Amino acid sequence: MKDFPRVLLLFSLVGLGGCSDDPVMPAASGGGQMIVLGVDGMDPELLNELLAQGELPNVQRLIDAGGFRVLGTSNPPQSPVAWSNLITGLNPGGHGLFDFLAFDRTNLRPYLSASAVRSASRGPLEIGDWRIPLGSDETVLLRKGKAFWELLENSGVDVTIVRMPANYPPVPSRGDSLSGMGTPDLRGTSGTFTYFSTRTAFQPGEVSGGELKRFEVRGDRLIAKIAGPENGLRSSSPALTATLEVVPDPDHGIALIRGASRELLVQAGEWTDWVEVEFELLPVMANIPGMVRLYLRSVHPETELYVSPVNINPLRPAQVISSPETYATRLAEAVGPFYTEEMPEDTKALSAHILSPVEFLAQSDLVMGETRRMLDYELRRFVDKRGAAFLFFYFSSVDQRHHMMGRHVDTEHPAHPPNTASTTMDSMRSTYREIDFLIGRVLERVGGDVAVVVMSDHGFSNFYREAHLNAWLQEAGYLVLREDAANDPEEWLPGIDWSRTRAFSIGLNSLYINVAGRERFGIVPAAQRLDLAREIAGRLHGWIDETTGLPVVTRASLREEIYRGPFLGEAPDIVVGYGNGYRGSWATSKGQTAQVLLEDNRDEWSADHCVDPDVAPGVLVSNLKLTTPNPQLTDLTVGILDHFGVAPDPAMRGTSPF
Ligand SMILES: [Zn+2]
């Protein structure tokens, strides 16, 4: 997510290993095979439009053989929540992910909901400035519930899971699985780029998701120092740094760039392949390997260099990103190194105007190229499989491009630039055509007896106006600021007078009642919680944007109405579903208020899906006959298990759509 690079996922050198201990039963269905292509953010409306124009012949082939349905998404329709519904076949009350951002009620601190670092059981031994860890920090997956592929594996199905979101660290697997969304970069963040310049007017500093730095000049060489993970061996924990050396040749518009193990001659305007970098942990003895992709924006008159977030190198993984651990390396040996950070398209660099829309699309094409190579490799393996086999393969491009290209492709958007280039204007349609081409590749490679499913976790809606939900709560008298409150954009829940605040919002769709004995400074008696939640939800339905006359919130749900399961008590009290055109503001997501209730969204992040689930449903397309009218993500989970004759977990309530 765009605005939370500073929420550290933290860094751990040691992860998980081993395998599930459950006994393997023989495959119940004896040889069914299925491929699920997970296209994050594929939207039924745009899909329909392109199908009607005959632009997606391969999706059409699938539909002709099986069918096409709108797929009900999770509430809220945020990717980690939606994919967890599919993974576990449970609603959020069963898997415990309610918003990408969770919130510790005892200390009012936010954290990313999908994974966390638990510190070592035995404290470190401190000698001088050195700090020798006695145990290992362990990253744990916070999503609860069993993944459907664990059930498949226990029934003897040969399973491969490529980049499933909300699966970091990956659950131990008998087959092969690679983690996706939720996987940090080597700094432990959700992706932090660095931009170097020689310009004197250049302002070094931090932007959301990135750092702007000046090159160090040493004679004719420019030194780029990239920050890495913290040094857990020193008690002062300074960030480790890796160095790139740049020798510009202004006469020819090229530069020689030296990384840890190779030199590259790069032309201005060119993207490089992966370049290894090393972070020295102990002098001479221990290095932490990482890798970056570079974009040499210019050499003359000034040198400007974009350095991608430092990715975990799958050829030498510093953290566990696959199960078994060797799978990521095997895959990289076959197709070359690939982005391992969670959502590799650098949306933050575009939002910070470090990359232009055209440069962002070029970087996104690099991601797509890697995706294509990985898919080809997995298809080669899949066709060689005999007996029951399942492949899940994930695509990030539709979602990430749609977020960023929203204002470019939509002439109605308040921030639509007047002179949009035609390639940018056509970027979403061409992305759908590209996905269609890859679906064609899958259909060519596998036989007609293999079930092929194309699905998305949610679709998209317009993000024209930012809704400052905390400002609305303040105006309605539920949230009160301290008189000395200063609005610090870096602060979470800043300036709130907790002794007079009854409700507040943090995250993208979550609204909490400030309950006595539950929240740190809670004041609302527990017995009044539900009545107050009902009152606020009712008033939210009457929130009308005076500028447009449209409803800002079309569905405010009490947690009791939409969730069931053991983690219901951890859910926000109200899940706020915005109407088409609206989304919670970035300020609200950090628990901040604002001077106005609503304002035009002028960010590059210009389309979204964290809205009313009816506004942004996903798609389900398959060559299997679809037999139910309104399938949900949790129905698909049961359908996958059913295809292999595997009984669903008793907690799953879904019905197979096939
Ligand atoms: Zn998204």
Detailed description of the structure:
The protein is α+β, with helices and mostly antiparallel strands and 658 residues long. It has three domains: 33-97 and 145-184 and 320-460 and 616-643, Alkaline Phosphatase, subunit A (3-Layer(aba) Sandwich), CATH 3.40.720; 193-307, no CATH class; 464-608, no CATH class. It is built from 16 helices and 33 strands. The strands form eight sheets. It has an eight-stranded mixed β-sheet with strand order 2-33-24-1-23-9-10-22, with helices on both faces. Strands 12-13-11-21-20-19 form a six-stranded mixed β-sheet, with no helix packed on it. A five-stranded antiparallel β-sheet has the order 14-15-16-17-18, with no helix packed on it. Helix 8 runs antiparallel to helix 9 and helix 9 (397-409) runs antiparallel to helix 11 (427-445). The radius of gyration is 25 Å and the shape is globular. It starts with 32 loop residues before the first strand and ends in a 15-residue tail after the last helix. Zinc ion binds next to helix 9.
How is the secondary structure organized here?
Blueprint (H helix, E strand, L loop, with lengths): L32 E7 L4 H9 L4 H9 L1 E5 L7 H10 L3 H4 L5 E4 L4 E4 L2 E4 L6 E3 L2 E3 L5 E4 L6 H7 L3 E7 L11 E4 L13 E5 L7 E3 L2 E5 L1 E3 L2 E10 L8 E11 L4 E5 L4 E5 L2 E13 L3 E13 L5 E4 L14 E2 L2 H10 L11 H5 L5 H27 L5 E7 L1 H13 L12 H4 L1 H19 L5 E5 L5 E7 L1 H7 L27 E3 L4 E4 L15 H12 L12 E6 H4 L11 E5 L2 E4 L1 H4 L8 E3 L6 E2 L9 E5 L10 H11 L15
Parallel strand pairs: 1-23, 1-24, 9-10, 9-23, 11-13, 25-30
Antiparallel strand pairs: 2-33, 3-4, 5-8, 6-7, 10-22, 11-21, 12-13, 14-15, 15-16, 16-17, 17-18, 19-20, 20-21, 24-33, 25-31, 25-32, 26-27, 27-29, 28-29
The protein binds zinc ion (ZN).
The site of zinc ion (ZN) has 5 residues, from helix 9.
